[in-house]
Amino acid sequence: MKRLNLLVAICSLLFSVTSTTLSAQMPQNMKSYWGEVVFNNDDLTIRQIDEHTWVGSGKMMSSEAIYIIEGKKSAILLDAGTRIADLDKIVAQITDKPVTLVATHLHPDHTGSAINYFPEIWIGSGDEKSEPQYLGNYKGKVNYLTEGQIWDLGGRKLEVVYTPGHTGGSITLIDKEAGYGFSGDAFGSGNLLLFTDFSTLIATCEKMSAKMEKDGVEYLFPGHFFGVNVETVQRLKDQIEVSRGVLSGELKGGASRPGGVGGKYTITKYGFNIVYDDAQLK
Ligand SMILES: [Zn+2]
User: Fold this and answer.
1) What domains can be seen in the chain, in order of their start residue?
2) Could you tell me where the DSSP H helices lie in the chain?
C-alpha cells in the first residue's frame, strides 16, 4: 500500500500542474458541460450533466471523474475515484436504481478504495494482467466487458468499445442516442500517461474517431474532467498527428517533471500532454 500511496501522491502533483496549464489554455467561449451541484463533501462534488447523467469530481487526483449513468431500470457507476468514503451511499442519494460498478481501467485514481463498497466490478480484459496491483485488496467479483457489448439500462444503451493505449485494457462507453461517450483516461484527460505504445494509441484513436463520425458521437467525457475538456474527433486526430510525429522523430518530448510517473519524456501540443518512455516508441 505504501507504493500505491506514493504513486497517488506523484500522480496528484503531475495532474495538478496539468490542470492549471489546461485551464490557462481554455478559450473563454468554450462550452461548459457542468450543471448544477447536487452533492458536495470533502471527497467529492457531483454535478448534473443532463437529466439522467451526473459527473462526480474527486478531490485527490486532480478532478478524477466518476460518472453516474442512469436508465429506466438500472444505473452504472463508471469509476470510483481514489478515496471517496461511503460512495455507495452517496450514489444512492442520486439514483434510486440498482447500480453496477464499471471501471474504465485499473488505476488507483479510478479503482481506489471505494470499489470495496460494491460487490462486483466490470472491467475490460487486459488490465488484470498488466495492472493487477490496482485491484488491490478487492474481495468482490470481477467481471469482464467484451468488445461491442451492449449494456441495456432500460431505455438507454451503452456500447463497450475497447480503447487500449493508456493501459492495455482501457474501455470507452458510447451512448449513441445521447451523442456522447465516456473515455476514462483512454484519450486526453489533458495528460495522457502512456503505458502501452504509440502504435496502440494511434490505432485506438483511429478506431474511435471513425466510430464517432459513423455514429454521430460528438464528444467523450474523460477520466479527469474540468467541466469543458471533452474529447472530440478533432482532438483524437490531433493525438494521432502528435503520436506519428513522435514516432517519426519529427517531434520530441522534453524531460518530464522530476519524480513523475509514466515515462521520462513529455510532449505537449494542442493543449494536451503525452508522457512516455523510450520503450513506448514503437
Ligand atoms: Zn486517471
Assistant:
1) 2-280 (3.60.15.10)
2) 2-25, 87-94, 127-130, 198-215, 233-248
